[in-house]
Design goal:
- The protein folds into 3 domains: 4-118, Phosphorylase Kinase, domain 1 (2-Layer Sandwich), CATH 3.30.200; 123-296, Transferase(Phosphotransferase), domain 1, CATH 1.10.510; 362-506, E3 ubiquitin-protein ligase SopA (Pectate Lyase C-like), CATH 2.160.20.
- The chain is 26% helix and 12% strand.
- The protein is built from 11 helices and 13 strands.
- The strands form 4 sheets. Strands 3-4-5-6-8-7 form a 6-stranded antiparallel beta sheet, with helices on one face.
- Helix 1 (76-94) runs antiparallel to helix 4 (186-199), helix 3 packs antiparallel against helix 6 and helix 3 (138-157) packs antiparallel against helix 8 (289-296).
- The radius of gyration is 28 Å and the shape is elongated.
Length: 506
């Protein structure tokens, strides 16, 4: 049911019937500027609250984002100054025009509060993406930076510092997979910074430092510079790589630098780039985004072209966002962002088949289990040879084109697992639950499925030469007579038709 929310921060019961024009509890108007109605809370913080709203003046009542900013002051002169600063900063934001930044539709003051009305973006933020899909590897991180740095470059070209870059403020737009940078801290921080200089450190300013862990020291001291956004972007990279908030990393006792290097698997060059992004001293940090883009091999603001590093660069990946692809098979390839993700994926797979090159990164059990516990599901094109994963829960995990030969997957729970095109020679699947698993075009030579549950599994065009299906349950599995003739079966094997008449194969 749609609810009309009262925007009075002190209202004890803000939920109202959607047809009411005034709050039933406190009497506040439920219609802002005779136009906007809040219908859902998105979040609350020290400086205000964010709502989903509807525009009542446009046909169809389109959705929008309502941001309520409230300066915590009872000083009339301070409020007047805050209002002037708010209007100035909001006007600057209103001049931004970029397809990966939400549009600012309106801004105004009402009942002692400031309001921003912005475009609503349908998508999931990167913080949730990492929790659900797993952490990034180097290639995914470079592609993230290739897409987001030109957006930050544009903001800085408009003389704006974002002030609150973090995973929760970067959305992957649902309709096209593009990254969108949201929730500028520019208005509230600029208002509070200037008020602090005029009226001193008061409760007015205590919420204006950005997000702890992502905001660098100079921003915490209310002296943000363009390089402050670069530090926040580097801190965001740490989260994408590890799933850990930057404030949870230890720090060097002498310099205050974050100690993160031992928790990631990156090339030396990428480590140096991140270290420079995260330098505490602004003199040692990238001064501007252009310098960072140059080191990353990203060209100009408009036509983004990612130069994949040459030999010696570690391009192994831990997890790729949905729009990413792996091009580890050809590290000299240049991929234009104008090509659709589907076309890129097709080209990358074709190239991988042509070259036959293997993945550079070799996983160990500890790293794999950690990623799995952090919610990672996609292990496509990874080197997992010889891993001992006995008894692990791998339901719906993806191992497309991965190397799993000689691995021990005995007694694993891998229902609906995707092993398309994977190398599974000599892999031990004994007593594993592989119901509805997808083995299409995989190499299963000498694989051991003894006693495994393979109900409704798909072996279309898979090589099962000498695979051991003794005692396995293949009921409703997609595997033909010719394939089974090349494999090992016995009187305890349940065949696709539900029978155990193994001798009928011959």
């Amino acid at each position: 049911m749609i609810i009309s929310y009262c925007l009075n921060p002190n209202c004890p019961q803000p939920k109202n019937h959607p047809k009411l024009k005034k709050c039933y509890t406190c009497g506040w108007s439920l219609i802002l500027k005779n136009r906007y109605r809040a219908i859902k809370v998105l979040g609350r913080g020290g400086f205000g609250a964010t709502f989903i709203g509807v525009d009542l003046t446009i046909t169809g009542n389109p959705l929008c984002v309502i941001k309520q900013l409230r300066p915590n002051t009872d000083d009339p002169q301070a409020f007047k100054t805050a209002l002037s600063l708010f209007e100035r900063e909001a006007k600057i934001l209103g001049q931004i025009s970029h397809p990966q930044i939400p549009r600012l539709f309106d801004y105004f003051e009402e009942n002692g509060h400031f309001y921003l009305i912005q475009e609503l973006i349908n998508g999931q933020n990167l913080q949730k993406e990492v929790k659900e899909e797993g952490v990034y590897g180097e290639l995914a991180l470079r592609r993230f930076l290739a897409e987001i740095t030109p957006v930050i470059q544009y903001i800085h070209s408009q003389k704006i510092i974002h002030r609150d870059i973090k995973p929760a403020n970067i959305l992957r737009r649902k309709k096209d997979g593009k990254l969108v940078l949201i929730d500028f801290g520019a208005v509230k921080d600029e208002v509070n910074t200037q008020l602090a200089k005029t009226y001193g450190q008061t409760a007015l300013t205590k919420f204006s430092v950005g997000t702890m862990g992502y905001a660098p020291p100079e921003q915490l001291a209310m002296r943000p510079v363009y390089a402050s956004d670069i530090y926040a972007l580097g801190a965001t990279c740490l989260y994408l790589l590890t799933g850990k908030s930057p404030k949870n990393f230890p720090i060097h006792p002498d310099t205050g630098e974050l100690l993160w290097q031992n928790e990631v698997s990156l090339s030396d060059k990428m480590v140096r780039i991140l270290e420079k992004m995260l330098a505490i001293n602004t003199r040692e940090r990238y001064r501007n985004v252009e310098q960072l883009m140059e080191d990353l091999g990203i060209e100009n603001m408009e036509g983004i072209l990612v130069q994949i590093p040459k030999s010696g660069m570690n391009t192994g990946i831990t997890s790729l966002p949905k729009t990413d692809i792996s091009v580890a098979s050809n590290p000299n390839t240049e991929i234009s962002k104008t090509i659709s993700p589907e076309e890129q994926l097709k080209k990358a797979i074709e190239k991988r088949k042509e070259t036959g090159k293997k993945i550079a990164i070799k996983w160990d059990e500890e790293r794999f289990i950690t990623a799995l516990r952090n919610g990672k599901k996609d292990f496509s094109e990874q080197d997992l040879q010889g891993l001992n994963l006995e008894g692990e829960k791998l339901n719906r995990c993806i191992f497309r084109y991965s190397s799993l030969q000689d691995a021990n997957l005995s007694q694993v729970q891998a229902c609906q697992g995707n092993f398309y095109g994977a190398n599974l020679t000599n892999t031990n699947f004994s007593k594993a639950n592989l119901a509805q698993a997808y083995f299409v075009k995989s190499n299963l030579q000498n694989a051991n499925f003894k006693g495994a549950d393979l109900t409704s599994a798909d072996f279309t065009n898979a090589d099962v030469t000498n695979a051991n299906f003794c005692g396995a349950n293949l009921k409703n599995a997609k595997i033909n007579r010719e394939q089974l003739k090349k494999a090992k079966v016995n009187a305890f094997t349940t065949f696709p038709d539900g029978s155990r008449l193994w001798w009928k194969l011959f």
